[in-house]
Each structure stands twice: as C-alpha cells, then as structure tokens.
Amino acid sequence: MEEVKLTLKLSKKTIEKGKNYARKRKTSLSRMIENYLEKITQQEQDEITPLVKNLSGVLKGERMEYKHGYSDFLERKYK
To answer: What is the rounded CA–CA span in Å between residue 31 and residue 38?
Structure first.
C-alpha cells in the first residue's frame, strides 16, 4: 500500500482532542482517520451495515417475516 501525505485544516482544539483520543487507544491520529475513512467508504458498498451484521442471530425463536410482523403492528395500532 502506497502512503501519501494529506494536509487537513482543523481547529487546534479538535486536533488536540483527536490526538488524546488516539493516544488513549494506543494508535496514531493518522491511523484512526484512515480506519474511519475505510469504514465509511466500505459501508456504501455493503447492503447490510456492520451494526445489522452484529445483531444477526441475536433473537432466538420462530423466524418472523418483518413485513408480516409490521402489518400486524399497524393493524393493532389503528384499530
């Protein structure tokens, strides 16, 4: 992977807070920003977000189609 230098203009306070945040996590501000950019650009390519992937399989029991469950909810709500 070729690394290229990037210059950003941010407030001094934001940079200081970012550096402190990165230091506490034993990483660099550059690495943290790179990881963030990788994550948000990957989400555009995925149909299912990482949050939904993490939640998959959390609920146990009968499989319920979401459209059927939602229509039942609406019927009860508007009776």
So the answer is: 10
Give SS3 for 65: coil
Answer whether residue 42 shows pLDDT above 90: no
d(CA 33, CA 22): 10
Which tokens sit at 1?
């992977």
What pTM does this model have? 0.51
> How many angstroms separate the CA atoms of 73 and 67, rounded?
10
Reported as type and span, the H/E element at residue 21 is helix 12-24
pLDDT band at 78 (very low <50, low <70, confident <90, very high): confident
